[in-house]
TrEMBL record:
Signal peptide residues on this chain, from the entry's feature table: none
InterPro entries noted in UniProt: AAA+_ATPase, ABC_transporter-like_ATP-bd, ABC_transporter-like_CS, ABC_transporter_ATP-binding, P-loop_NTPase
The keyword Phosphoprotein is annotated on this UniProt entry: no
Domain ABC transporter residues, every copy: 29-258
Single GO MF descriptor: ATP hydrolysis activity
Keywords, alphabetical: ATP-binding, Nucleotide-binding, Transport
Domain of life: Bacteria
Protein name per its UniProtKB record: ABC-2 type transport system ATP-binding protein
CDD domains listed in its UniProt record: ABC_DR_subfamily_A
Organism from which the protein derives: Franzmannia pantelleriensis
Length: 335
């Protein structure tokens, strides 16, 4: 990827953007009390409240059928809401549809390109759909930024899956949006190409584009997102800074397999907040493994106090939680 091309792309967009000086502290997308009920009675979204910050990468996680694609479709103006409000950089996306939609680029999950069209023509055509006058220089910048310039005259049917996904991003950027939605951007892409796509997304964010992505890959959210949201059953379960989630990732468990089962945790060990498991034959200690120096000293103290209390163990092992564990637990709590 060419970072300089992305910077040029952003600078060119700002020259044509009368509102480029808007405060970065303002949310670029504000969603309030959003509901969506389909004709058959399915309640896909339930009173969703969400704010997306200008210039961030926001990852939306959720199981199949949780409401991710419906939420994106409503914000992008492709599906009408049943209630609530969506504002895109201050524009109501129902009353001010054209202004709101012009600010958004959408990269859908499905590969929907015209197979026998060239890269250049399909990206240029997408620009025209938004009423933008032809701008070959902008299309060139977009294609170069996505390493597609050498493929500009190739028909889409000849491209690899990864290249086709880049074309979808190029189409979404053709009309100079300030917000980019990526719906499962790396679905079906191999690991190497996935990491390549991550680089593209980071560079777009660094060029000033706000990124909202949905993904099934937990490591994708962990690798790229500034904030992470979890949706389940049409409701937002969690919105949190990635740094805060990473602190949760530092949570570790030490499991002690005891020689003799305990009926209860001795009072002398109450400060450790221990839990009994496996009918009292296991003692579980949860601690914060992100604090330098704390891990060894706390375990040493615990083992000393266990010995003083006459509790012997025959084996022990540690386990560190992951973002996937947190995600699964959150979803379980609400099913």
């Amino acid at each position: 990827m060419d970072p300089s091309s992305l910077n040029d792309l952003h600078q060119a967009s700002r020259l044509n953007d009368p509102d480029a000086s808007r405060s970065v502290a303002e949310p670029v997308i504000s969603i309030s009390g959003l509901d969506k009920v389909y004709a058959g009675g399915f309640h896909a979204l339930k009173a969703v409240d969400l704010s997306i910050r200008r210039g961030e990468i926001f990852a939306l996680l959720g199981p199949n059928g949780a409401g991710k694609t419906t939420l994106i479709s409503v914000v992008c103006g492709l599906v009408n809401p049943s209630g609530g409000e969506v504002r895109v950089d201050g524009f109501d996306n129902v009353r001010d549809y054209r202004q709101a939609r012009a600010l958004i680029g959408l990269v859908p999950q499905e590969l929907t390109n015209e197979a026998f069209e060239t890269v250049w023509n399909t990206v240029s055509f997408s620009r025209g759909l938004f009423g933008k006058s032809p701008d070959p220089a902008h299309i060139e910048r977009v294609l170069k930024s996505l390493a597609l310039w050498d493929k500009r005259n190739n028909r889409l049917i000849t491209l690899s899956g990864g290249m086709k996904r880049r074309v979808l991003i190029a189409k979404a950027l053709s009309h100079e949006p300030r917000i980019l939605f990526l719906d499962e951007p790396t679905a079906g892409v191999d690991v190497e190409l996935r990491r390549d796509m991550w680089d593209v997304v980071r560079q777009l964010r660094d060029s000033g584009v706000t990124i909202i992505l949905t993904t099934h890959y937990i490591e994708e959210a962990e690798e790229m997102a500034d904030r992470i949201g979890v949706i389940n059953g049409g409701q937002i379960v969690l919105v949190e800074e990635k740094a805060a989630l990473m602190r949760k990732l530092g949570s570790k468990q030490l499991t002690l397999h005891l020689h003799a089962p305990l009926a209860e945790v001795p009072v002398a060990l109450a400060d450790y907040d221990l839990q009994l498991a496996a009918d009292g034959s296991e003692l579980i200690y949860t601690y914060d493994g992100t604090r330098d120096g704390d891990e060894g000293s706390s375990i040493t103290a615990l083992l000393g106090d266990l010995d003083a209390a006459g509790i012997a163990f025959k084996d022990l092992h540690t386990r560190q939680s992951s973002l996937e564990d947190i995600f699964v637990d959150l979803v379980k709590e609400r099913t």
